[in-house]
Amino acid sequence: MKRPTILVLGAGYGGLSTVVNLQKSIGADDANIVLINKNEYHYESTWLHEAAAGTLTPEQVRYDVKDVINEGKVQFVQAEVTAIDIPGKVVTTNVGTHTYDYLVIGLGFEGETFGITGLDKYALSIANVKAARQIREHIEYQFATWSLEEVKDDSRLTIVVGGAGFTGIEFLGELGNRVPELCEEFDVPKEKVRVICVEAAPMVLPGFDPELVTYAVRQLEAKGIEFSIGTPVVEATPEGVNIKKGEDEFEFIKAGTVVWAAGVRGNRLIEETGIENMRARVKVDKDLRAPGHSDVFIVGDCALMINEETNRPYPPTAQIAMQQGDMIANNILALMKGEPTSKFVPDLKGSIASLGDDDAIGVAFGKKMFGKKASFMKKMVDNRALFLIGGVGLTLKKGKFNLLK
Ligand code: FAD
Question: What is the mean pLDDT of the chain?
């Protein structure tokens, strides 16, 4: 019998979790497992705010895909997927084409600008490790230029962060620690720097416990971060952003750096597949297959799942992506054996948002926590993700061990 080809697109949390679980349970002769990823490395998307602020280097947030796959069982192809032809069962990349029997799409997230004028051109986005490096270098460039220029333009030292959701708040937490370092490095007086968070919604961190939100805002404000809440960004220009403060009231914030952290969507390649989607996310069947496509699984941020208790989509998280990868590996095995697939039910263990390297808020295993305890737990969660994909070796190599900072 012909060996089936399992083609996995994307070596993010979802794709890698699928592959490492497949390689554990499939014999080398049972299937061809092919993993395609744009880079030769995986990056920890959940650490990108640190790379963007410059509190971690790009090197620290990534590792080689080959460090975690068994090359005796998995063929790794470094290539950029450019098209997915579902009826023809062919995936095209910049270096060639691949056919498949089972396809797993795990191409991750992209920033969503909701059509706001100028954001795609003038705002930076924490979308991947290269984009995070660009933000770090852009901020450093602004500080370096300010310290050199004769007629000083203080707006170079203003950083606007669009969005007070999870990513925005985590990035602000890192900036709160990083700005004093930058001031020292570039001889910039701290009072010249402004970091402003602009949020359209009437609250910070929607969905989080109000007591924890109050704590987070207080801690960030103590580090000099300003909040402008309920004030949507209506336009970005090369000079900054225009925000709406009232019915006919607008304010222009002149800023050297604008980082948009207010929304994500799935990978836009999904929109060209013909599979029904919402903002490039596919509302998957219970066993994580694309509706009407028995050989196509969707994992991670490209998948959309409704929480039946709240009737709202589950937020896109690494936690869910990894659990889905595990389930997809099991379901592909089941299909290969002619057995029924299983229903995916997320096992939500909580959510912790960092406020810099030394502080955090969140709920884990049903317990509310903040401060050093939450920060410790956050690092344990980060290390656990490494452990689940690459075992003890990867955890020791890339893990966070400044646990009690
Ligand atoms: P990704 O991890 O984004 O991986 C997608 C992969 O596909 C990447 O390797 C990419 O290079 C590759 N790829 C993309 N396009 C192509 C292409 N055309 N060809 C080939 N390869 C391609 N979640 C949590 O659970 N906890 C957190 O604390 C948390 N914090 C976060 C902090 C930040 C700053 C951000 C941005 C996100 C955070 N998240 C968190 C969300 C989490 O990172 C995502 O939900 C998760 O990364 C989704 O995993 P994924 O496998 O779908 O995609």
Answer: 96
